[in-house]
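> call design_seq(struct)
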């Protein structure tokens, strides 16, 4: 019955033109509208979140790099003045300098630990494990006397391990 209805229609009739030319276009428009109004914003949101996470990771990586450098330099300077103190004693001015170096080292350590703490939020478990291992190692060093501390090379090894772990994450 329906087939005979369509057979009786003229090729130039409104119904045939509507069904053959307009309906496919309308389906395309509706499908495009669904895509543009629902799926595209979801993809854009995921992309924006991914870019924000990558940017935040990069900021943390830069902060850790700078803080590590300051911390290690502070340790080296403090160790150098401690060696001088053991060798020949310190003048009053040098004692004041040593006090400033201790304060600088403490501030550098605080900044480094603050930056490293952010890795717990933005980085994966393997990276956080490396960071946690360094922090535990460093805390053990904090209770040692200056003449019992390992050389700066040990801090540099930890720096390389931590930064390598962070760099892997940033490069993803």
């Amino acid at each position: 019955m329906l087939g005979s209805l369509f057979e009786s229609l003229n090729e130039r009739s409104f119904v045939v033109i509507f069904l053959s030319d307009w309906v496919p276009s309308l389906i395309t428009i509706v499908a495009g509208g669904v895509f543009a109004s629902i799926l595209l914003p979801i993809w854009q949101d995921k992309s924006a979140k991914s870019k924000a996470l990558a940017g935040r990771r990069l900021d943390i990586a830069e902060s850790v790099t700078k803080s590590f450098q300051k911390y290690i330099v502070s340790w080296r300077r403090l160790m150098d003045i401690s060696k001088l103190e053991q060798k020949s004693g310190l003048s009053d001015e040098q004692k004041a300098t040593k006090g400033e170096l201790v304060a600088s080292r403490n501030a550098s350590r605080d900044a480094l630990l603050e930056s490293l703490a952010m890795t717990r939020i933005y980085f994966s478990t393997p990276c956080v494990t490396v960071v946690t291992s360094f922090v535990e190692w460093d805390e053990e060093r904090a209770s040692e006397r200056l003449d019992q501390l390992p050389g700066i090379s040990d801090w540099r090894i930890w720096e390389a391990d931590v930064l390598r772990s962070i760099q892997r994450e940033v490069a993803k």
